[in-house]
Structure formats: structure tokens, C-alpha cells
Amino acid sequence: MTKRFANLTKIPEQPASRLLAAGNAKLREKINAPASASVEVVLTELESKEAWIDMVRLMSVALPPRECVWWACLAGRQILGAKGQSVCLDAAEAWVFDPSDANRIRVQEVLENEASGDLTAPAATAALYAPGNLGPGNLAEHPAPPGIVGACGFGINLRTLKVVDDLDVQFHLIIDRALDIARGGNGQVKPRAPLKEAGDA
After folding, report:
1. Residue 152 CB contacts under 8 Å (≥ 6 apart), including other chains
2. 128: burial class by Cβ within 10 Å (0-12, 13-18, 19+)?
3. 58 part of a folded domain
């Protein structure tokens, strides 16, 4: 393993294969590591194969739900740009900072009434389902769809590829954000090289 994947203290000590199965997710790349291999071991193999999408997929199911929501929020901020605004993203971020029923109800209201056309809606969807059920109140008795939080985190992070020119730099930024969050950081990492927005000269 490389130092890049060391000390991922937020990631459960379970085989990567088990986390993928629980998250209803599959990797494209054939993995040579045994089924019992840790997330760190599988990430190392995927990196050696430059399987960036699979690395993002694995991180989407390896991060705990609340951390995955924050990862999705960082992607949402990048999609919006410096001056962009979104009630979906505002609601999702508020829930991450304070995962109270009141903030979750706000997420639910935003998704039901104000999310149309909002590219950052997956972050709010992830926040709604992150506690593991369909919502507050009576909805708490019903489990959330399997893998929904990871799927939202995966999808919105891949959407950032459409707003930049250098896909390799962006893939590493997505992954490095997730790794920083997995170490207990805030995910506010710098890209490995300057990133230009798609269409910039």
C-alpha cells in the first residue's frame, strides 16, 4: 500500500467487497486481491491500473453516510462555481453540520418543492437518506433504498467532470477529497495542478 491510502480511520474495517455489496455497487475492473482485501489494498490495486472511476465508486461506499454527504456537497460547490447558489446544497450542508430532525425536514421540503433542475439535488438526496431510513417521523420506520447515499455521492462527483477540462486532475481531486475526509479532514484539498473550467481559454 502507498502512503496515499494510509490512516483512513473513518472507513470501516471491513473487506472492500463487503462494503461494495452492502452499497449495491460493483467495480468495472477485475480485482486480483482476495475477497477479504481491505479498502486500502483494493484502492492501491485500482490506482496501479489507473481505474479512477472504480476508485471513486469504492470511496462512495466506503465513506460513512454523513461523510459521503459532505463529499457530495464539495462536488456540488464545484459544480455551482464561486457565485452559484442552491437551496438543495444549502440544506444538505446544514444537515452535515447539524444532523438534526429539523434540518432533515428542511432537506425533505427542498427536495419536494424546490429541487427541479438543481444539479446539486443528489447531495440533498444523500442527506435525506443518510440516517438509513426514508425520512423523519413515520417514514423512519422504513429503510432507505440500499446504496442510495453512495450512489448519490458517486453520481454528483462524476458530474464535476463536466465542468473542468483536465479529467485526470479532476479524478485525483475527487479521490483526494474522499481520502482526506476518510482521515477526518474536511476534504478541502487543492488539485494537483491548476484546474480550468470547461470552455476556458
Report:
1. 68, 72, 122, 123, 125, 126, 129
2. buried
3. no
How far does Cα 6 stand from its chain's mean position?
A: 19
Which residues partner with 197 through β-bridges? 164
In a domain, 88, yes or no: yes
Residue 53 belongs to a domain: no
Q: For residue 169, how many other CB atoms are within 10 A of its CB? A: 16
Write the DSSP symbol of residue 82.
T
Per the structure block, which three cell numbers stand in for 7? 490512516
The total domain count for the chain is 1
Residue 128 belongs to domain spanning: 65-154
> pLDDT for 113-172, tens place per residue?
998 889 999 999 999 999 999 988 888 999 999 999 999 999 999 999 999 989 999 999
131: nearest Cα among 65, 182, 72: 65
In a domain, 25, yes or no: no
CA distances for 181 relative to 14, 37, 74, 187, angstroms? 18, 21, 11, 5
Cβ atoms of residues 76 and 123 within 8 Å: yes
> Cell match 442552491: residue?
86
Q: Phi first, then psi: what are they for 85, rounded to 5°? A: -130, 150
Give ∠ CA 11-170-165 in degrees, rounded to 5: 165
Confirm whether pTM is higher than 0.85.
yes
> Cα separation of 163 and 78, whole Å?
8
